[in-house]
Fold:
Amino acid sequence: MTDLPDLLARALPDLEDVAPGADVARGHRALQRRHRTAAIAGGGTLAALVAAAAVVVVAHDGNRVTDTARPAAPPSPQASRTVPPELDPTPGFSVSSVPPGWKILGGSPYHLLLVRTGDPDRSLDRFAGKILVMLRPTYLDAPTGTPQPVAGREGWYRIVPTGQVPAEDDLPVGTADLEFQDGTGRWILVQAPPSLGWDAGQLAQWSAGITVLPNALVED
Amino acid sequence: MASRPGRTQARDTEFTAFVGAHRPGLLRTAALLTAGDAHRAEDLVQTGLTKLYVAWPSVRREGNPLAYARRTIVNAHIDETRRPTWRRERVVAEPPDAPTSDWDPLGGVDGETVRAALRALPPRMRAAIVLRHWLDLSVEETAALLGCTPGTVKSTTSKGLARLREHLERPATASTERTAS
Structure:
């Protein structure tokens, strides 16, 4: 008896090879649609919560700084039930200072974004040219780069390789990653654009002022 | 969307590698599910891979992106054929309960004859045959992918093989139509 797979193989039409880049681009668009849908669904509470989170003046290292991201109050249990994490616009992180010429844009339990003052890009889902703070995603491999301690704890600094994968809009060349452990052992990831003009030491010093808030979630 | 640090880039790198390795196989599977319709097969693969990209972090953590991609493609195929624009097949003769052991399906049949025979099968029956005999999945794996019991897979596959045999032996006695209503 002849193999059934051989019979089925006869039924195959001529099939065209397609480069993976087209599938990646479709994936990007699907992800963007999902994020846009989430943004629309959560839009009613977005502005109020971000505003409540953003403007507090604190002292840092004896110098007056402009503002910090700190939620006015922790999310209520009711809010946790009614707002899925991906729709919750309360940043999961606070910073003790904001670089001169920058401001807090907002975020989610997964991330906090800072943007250069005057930057018209208000998207919370685009990160190129912005400062990003997030917990290090669990699916990433071990940190790489140059050792760069943060507040005496293990950290790694590297310039993000760009242009290696098909993407609709890669990061600017020179974008830096700093990955470090906080006092609880969690890994924090900070992404800084080259326009910030900071070296590894400056970025580490600023990153020492990052606090992971109770509502923070890690990308998995 | 711009890249998050490592996040989108890692996803893109891994996904690109996955697509490079498995897209041709997924497309062939989809082509059999659609009974040789290359355009519909491409649509199914695109649908499956797009869903896979969106779900990539959790799927990757679960450790079997290929199974996820196959499942989305099969589900998309079955869902599509439930639409009212698709007319179910019409089989003239009652099939036997099980195929005979001495069946030699390669009795000089050409590709179009095989495609016609596949078109004569209901979508889930066709899927069961493709999963079991093209992808060589186990009964249990096929059942998990189709969302049914192993017993249903066995009976569906057996009936499907019987129908396939009948159509290959007497292709003119049965007809299947893909017709826009």
Q: What stands out?
A: Chain B has a mean pLDDT of 78. Chain B touches chain A through 58 residues (CB under 8 Å).
